[in-house]
Amino acid sequence: MRLTIVFLWMTVMLDALGIGLVMPIMPDLIRDVEGGDLSQAAIWGGVLSTVFAVMQFLFSPMLGSLSDRIGRRPVMLTSLFAMALVYLGMAVAHSIWILLIGRILSGITAATHSTANAYIADISAPEHKARNFGLLGAGFGVGFVLGPLIGGFLGEFGPRAPFYVAALLVGLNFLLGIVVMSETVTDETRRPFDLRRANPLGAFKQVSRLPGITPLMVVYFIYSVALYVYPAIWAYFTQLRFDWSTQMVGLSLALFGISMAAVQGGLIGVLLRRFGERKTALYGQLFDAVAFAAIAFVTNSTLALILTPIAALGAVVSPALQGMMSRRVADDAQGELQGVLTSVHALSMICSPLMMAAVFALFTREGAPVFFPGAPFLLSMVLVLIGSVLLARTKPS
Fold it and tell me: Dihedral angle at the C-alpha atoms of 225, 261, 66, 62, nearest 10 degrees?
C-alpha cells in the first residue's frame, strides 16, 4: 500500500510538473517560435495555459466518473502512457501551433489528478481525508519545485530539453504503477457510467444537489483563480521588475514549491488538529491576502525571495476545503466529486491566466497610464478576501 501511495504522490507531482515545467522557459520559447516582445509573449503564454485548463475542465469529470465505473488503475495508467508520448511530441515542436496542440493533449492526460484524489478518498477515514489530501497537495508542491527547476536549468541547453526529461519521468512512473497499483473500486462501490453526469455541466449539477457543497465550491474556485497568479505571471513579473534570468525564475518558483510542499505535507496536520478544516481554510486565505499585497508593491529582489516561502504558508486552503466537501459525499461518488473539483480548478485556470495576463499587459505596456507590474497580485488579494468572507458566512458541517 505504501508503494501505491508513492505512485499516487508521483502522479500528482507529475501533473504539477507539467504546469511548472513551462513557466521559466515560456517567455523565451514563445519569442523564439513566434517573435514579439515580452508583453505579447505573456498573452500567448496565457492562451497556452488556458487551453491546458479547458481540457482539464472538460475531461476531469469524465475521467473521475469513468474511474468510479471501471476502476482507478486503468484510468491512471492509460493517462500516464499518453502523457509520456505528448511530452516527446512537444520536445520536437517548432511552431506555436504545435505547442498549442501539445498543451491541449497534456491538459487531457493530466486530468488524472481527480482520480488520484478519489483513490485517497477511498482508503482514508473521514477524519483523515483533509490531511491525506494535503499529502497529495505536497506532491503537487514538489512538482511545482521540479517543474521550474527542470525548466530553468535544462532551459539553458535549449527550450525543448526539459520536455525529454519530463517524458522520462512520466514513463518511469507508468512502469511503477503497473507493478504496485491495486484497485480500490469494488462491486459494492462501482457506479454505472452516465454520460450526463460525466460532462462538466452534468457533474456540477449532480454534485451541487448535495447540502452545503455549492458555497464551498464557489470559495474553492475564487481561491484557485487568485492563487494561479504565480504560474500565470511570476516569470514575466520578475523579469520585468528585477531583470531575473530564466534560471533565477526557476529557483524562485522552486523555493515556493518546496515551501508549499512542507506546509501541505506537515504544517496542515497541526493546524487541522488545532483549528479544524473550516478555520484552517479561513486562516490560509487571510494570510494569502497579506502576502499578495506585499508582493504587489515589493521592489527589492532580495525581499521578493524572502516573501516567496512566506506566501506558501497559505497553501492549507485547498486541502482543507477538499476535506470539508469529501465528508459530504458518498463512497461511490468520490471520483465524481474529485472530477468536479478538478474541473473547478481547471475553470479557474481558464479564467486566471487570461485575466492576470491582461492586467499585467495593461499596466506594463508602452503608454500605460500607470506602470505597475504588481497589479495582478493586488487583484488576487481582493479575490481571496472575497472568498474568506463567503467562507465565513457558510454554516459549519
Answer: 20
296, amino acid identity: A
Q: Which residues of 324-363 are buried (b: 16+ CB within 10 A; e: fewer)?
A: bbbeebeeebbbbbbbbbbbbbbbbbbbbbbbbbebbbeb
- Mean pLDDT, range 303-332, rounded to an integer: 79
How large is the average pLDDT for residues 256-273?
77
Q: Is residue 305 scored above 70 in pLDDT?
A: yes
Could you give the C-alpha distances from 188 to 70, 157, 283, 345, in angstroms and in order? 13, 52, 39, 30
Residue 274, C-alpha cell as written in the block: 488545532
Q: Cα separation of 168 and 214, whole Å?
A: 40
Enter the DSSP assignment of 210: S
pLDDT in tens, 324-372: 887 777 666 666 677 777 778 777 877 887 789 889 988 988 877 888 9
Question: Going from the N-terminus, what domains does the chain have, and what CATH number goes with each?
Answer: 2-182+196-393 (1.20.1250.20)
Q: Which residue has the higher pLDDT, 384 or 149?
A: 384
Q: Quick one: pLDDT at residue 194?
A: 65
**DSSP annotation of 266:** I
Using alpha carbons, select from 287, 281, 373 the residue that is nearest to residue 324: 281
Provide the 8-state DSSP code for 127.
G
CA distances from 19 to 97, 193, 283 (A): 18, 30, 26
DSSP 316: T
Asked whether the beta carbons of 235 and 24 are under 8 A apart, the reply is yes
**Is residue 255 predicted with pLDDT exceeding 90?**
no
- Give the tens place of pLDDT for each residue, 219-244: 999 998 998 888 788 888 888 888 88
At residue 323, φ and ψ (nearest 5 deg) are -65, -40
CB-CB contact of 12 with 136 (8 Å): yes
Burial of 292 (0-12, 13-18, 19+ CB in 10 A): buried
